[in-house]
Amino acid sequence: MTNQLHTHEADFICKGRVVEVMQQNGWSFVSCTGCSTKLDKFGTSLRCTRCINPNIIGVIKYRVELLVDDGNDNATFVVFGREMLKLTKQDAAGLTLAEMNGGGDVELPQCLKDLAGKDFVFQIRVTPFNFTPSHHTFKTNEDQFLQVEGGEPSASASVKATGEGNEPNPPACGVKESGRKRPHE
């Protein structure tokens, strides 16, 4: 029997400028091709703790932390895989290979550096998970993520991201509430 927990969710629309592409946690990770979970290193092998498959194949994916400011406050958004591909026009595996062929420099790739100073419109989904003691993260849903040029949104790309913040209703953001039932975890 599955326990059902009724949760409230809210969607926020925020315009913000990427202040910095943060480098403390790198910009990529090796994920399982089966479930996209980050692979764990065990000795000289990689393992997926979700798939439990002994023949795991890994692929390099983006995990980029962006410090975003809306004019009143800032938050860190983590943007993954295909959403970063849409923003950079380069896949993480190819970019990693190019970096290694260029000497393996630990510096941030230019296409990621170029995101700093650009304005975007983010759509963020807030759930009770965002306010658990160990998680103050926000996830953008798969709706539009727009780059803003000259004060107006110009081109759209779908994006998922998570970010860290403490306010349930960040300034300069619109809100739309929704309810959803999900299994108790």
From TrEMBL:
<feature type="region of interest" description="Disordered">
    <location>
        <begin position="149"/>
        <end position="185"/>
    </location>
</feature>
<dbReference type="InterPro" id="IPR012340">
    <property type="entry name" value="NA-bd_OB-fold"/>
</dbReference>
<protein>
    <recommendedName>
        <fullName>Replication factor A C-terminal domain-containing protein</fullName>
    </recommendedName>
</protein>
